[in-house]
Amino acid sequence: MFRFLCISTILLVFFLLLSPVLAQRSPNVSKGYERALKLYIEEKHSESLAAIRQVFDESVSQDRLNLRFLASFNYMALQNYNSATLHARLAARENPQKFQPAVIRARVLRARKKPYQAVVILSKAIQKFGDIPELLLSLAFAFYESKQYRKANFYLRKLLIKQPQNFYAVYLDGILLLKKGKFDSAEFRLKNALAIRPITPKDLVLIYNHLGIVAERDAARKEIEGSQQVASKRYDEANRYYVYALSIDPNESQVLANQKRLSLRR
Q: How far apart are alpha carbons 141 and 156 in whole angstroms?
C-alpha cells in the first residue's frame, strides 16, 4: 500500500529544497549534486551514485550532508540497505546538531521493514529537536507501518495543525480513514490530497489507486447491504481510478493486481 514510501517521493521535496543551499557553496559540487539528483529522479541510481562520487571528496559541511542523503536514497532504491545505513549513520555522526539524519536513518529502517526501530530513532529526535514537521510525518508513517494506528493518528494530527496542506499528511489521513472503514471520509481526504497537487507522477498513481480501493470496498459493502445499483456504480468508479493510475504507470504491480481482483468480482 505504501510503495511510494520505499524510495522516491516522500523526501524528494526535501532534497529539492536543499539544492539552493548547496548552490551557495562550491559551484562544482553544486553542479554535481544537481546532476546526481536528476539521475536519481530518472531512476538511474548507479549513475547517480557515480556522479556523487565525482564530487564527494571536495565537498564539506552542508554539501557532504546533502550528498550522503542522496547516496542513501540511491542505495535504498538498489536495495543495498547496508550502504544506505552506512551513509545515514555517517550523516548523523557528522551532524549531531541536525534533525535530518534521523529522518534518513528511519527511512532506511522502514525500507528494511523495521518500523519499530524507526519509531525509537524518531521519538528520540523529537525529544531533542521538538515537533519538526518532517519528524512528525516520518513518525506517523512509522507508527502506521507498525500497525499502531492510534499513535499514527496522534502524530498526524500534530502535523496537520502545523501544515494542513501537507500533501503526504492529507494522504495518510485518507489512508487511516480507509483503515477504519470510513469510506466517505477517506475518499474526501484523498481528493483533498489530489487537489493540493501531488508532488510526482508516482504520487498521482498512489492517489488514484487508493481512490479505487475506497470505491471498491464501498461497493462491496453496498452489495452486502443489498444496494446492487449503487454497488455497480461504485465498482465502475473503482475501475476508472485504476485505469487512471495505469495510464500514468502501466507497470504498477499493485494497481494491476487490484484491477485483476476487481474484474473477478464483477
A: 9
Contact 235, 258 (CB under 8 A): no
What does pTM read for this prediction? 0.84
Integer Cα distance of 116 and 105 in angstroms: 13
**Rounded CA gap, 139 and 132, in Å?**
11
Per-residue pLDDT tens over the stretch 65-80: 889 989 999 999 899 9
Angle between helices 183-196 and 201-224 (to 10 degrees): 160
Q: What is the pLDDT of residue 22?
A: 47
Secondary structure of residue 20 in the 3-state scheme: helix
Phi, psi of 227 (to 5 degrees): -90, 75
- Taking domain 166-266, whether its CATH number is 1.25.40.10 is answered by yes
Confidence bin at 4 (pLDDT 50/70/90): very low
Q: What gap in Å lies between CA 68 and CA 40, rounded to an integer?
A: 13
Mean pLDDT for the stretch of residues 78-107: 91
Span 159-182, pLDDT tens digits: 999 999 999 999 999 999 999 999
Angle at 188 between CA 140 and CA 178, to 5 degrees: 50
Domains of the chain, by residue range, sit at 166-266
134, 133, 207, 121: which is closest to 172 by C-alpha? Answer: 207
CB 7 within 8 A of CB 76: yes
